[in-house]
Design a protein that fits this description.
single chain, 398 residues, mainly beta, lipopolysaccharide transport protein A fold, two-stranded antiparallel ribbon, 0% helix
Length: 398
């Protein structure tokens, strides 16, 4: 028959032939299948340490339940978890080959992954969610008001998956997921779903799929899909494409749309924007005419130069190229009648516009190549002036 055991007063237990020890104020063992630990519970094995108010061991399934003020630490990585409830399934030969953990009650995780190849420890992710599942030391799933924070970025979503091991990827899904780069050159990315790619356990690429929007100091970009490449935790390149929502980028000075867009920003400073497929680039809308300069072609390339502004670098447009069916539309101001400018429209195989320096502003040179034509419409005279008096005046009667 099964025997029950009860013990009290700083009870200590260990498993013979294994690195497993348990400690609590009191213990109740029922038939060797269930063991309850009550008060100041401490559990240790070769992988993890766990403290809690209460603990229960189930031989069937090799499960350990911790309840109340749970605090754990992974010896391999240094990751920690605190929360009210945790179920721990250790790796046991013939049962499971990888440890698993399930936590509820909105646990807080300091998620660390040691970079053994480089001999360094990567900055931890601070993760909070309603419920969390771990598999091994490098895979985590979280659900319910998920927040992920680190010094270089923060993320919010309804659910999350993160694999810092062999998969080196992750996903943010549900609840209008958003990822924000933190710092002086911040950015944000949102969409129906956000996929993450890691390189050496650092974020290297983030992709928003469905109703994508990316926002930084230079552009506000929307598209079906937006992919951002990162290097040294800085935005390097942005790609956008889509049919339902064609890529459209808007800045304080320019707007651009195309079937696909590529924005190069090495060291997070905009240097070039390329539009492919029915590409169009427009300047700011003129307040008087409600019209704007624009260029279009199958491909449009806008190049930017860095200029100092109040001790900080900013990007200024320096050159525009339109290729394959190129067209340009330019408004020339009319000082006497600002609402009626002259209009210059030109077509060619390729059009290149070179801008003056930032201080001077305006266009320096326009080159049109290939089959060229166009039209210049000069502003008309003031047609609203009253005509001369043609009424014959009679001399007064004498």
């Amino acid at each position: 028959t099964a025997t029950n055991y009860f013990a009290g007063g700083n009870v200590r237990l260990s498993c013979r032939g294994m690195q497993i020890s348990m400690q609590s104020d009191s213990v109740a063992a029922y038939g060797g299948n269930v063991v309850q630990f009550i008060g100041h519970v401490k559990y240790r094995d070769s992988t993890i340490s766990m403290d809690a108010d209460f603990g229960t061991y189930f031989k069937n399934g090799e499960r350990w339940e911790a309840r109340g003020n749970v605090a754990t630490q992974n010896f391999k990585t240094g990751s920690t978890l605190t929360g009210p409830s945790l179920d721990y399934y250790r790796a046991v030969k013939g049962v499971r080959d990888t440890l698993e953990m399930y936590a509820t009650g909105r646990p807080k995780i300091r998620y660390v992954e040691a970079d053994s190849a480089a001999g360094r420890t990567v900055e931890p992710y601070l993760i909070v969610a309603d419920r969390v599942r771990f598999k091994g030391s490098d895979r985590i799933w979280a659900g319910g008001k998920v927040t992920v924070d680190r010094s270089d970025f923060s993320a919010r979503s309804d659910s999350m998956r993160l694999d810092t091991g062999r998969g080196s990827d992750g996903t943010l899904l549900g609840g209008d997921p958003v990822l924000r780069g933190v710092g002086a050159d911040s950015f944000s990315l949102q969409g129906t779903r956000i996929d993450l790619a890691l390189q050496e356990r650092e974020l290297s690429r983030v992709v928003a799929r469905g109703q994508g929007r990316a926002l930084n100091r230079d552009w506000d970009l929307v598209a079906d899909t937006i992919a951002i490449d990162l290097e040294d935790r800085k935005l390097e390149r942005t790609l956008a494409w889509g049919k339902q929502t064609r890529p459209y980028a808007l800045s304080t000075s320019y707007a651009m749309r195309a079937d696909s867009l590529a924005l190069d920003s090495p060291a997070q400073l905009l240097r070039e924007v390329r539009g492919f497929g029915k590409a169009w680039l427009g300047g700011t809308t003129d307040a008087a005419t409600k019209d704007r300069d624009w260029m279009r072609g199958d491909t449009v390339i806008a190049r930017f130069s860095p200029v100092d502004s109040a001790g900080k670098k900013r990007a200024v447009l320096s050159r525009i190229e339109a290729r394959a069916g190129a067209q340009s539309y330019h408004l020339e101001r009319n000082a006497r009648a600002p609402s009626r400018p002259s209009i210059n429209y030109a077509r060619g195989d390729a059009i290149t516009v070179t801008m003056k320096n930032a201080a001077a502003g305006g266009v320096e040179r326009v080159d049109i190549r290939g089959k060229v034509d166009g039209i210049q419409l000069e502003a008309s005279g003031d047609t609203t002036t009253a005509p001369a008096d043609t009424v014959v005046r009679r001399s007064p009667a004498r």
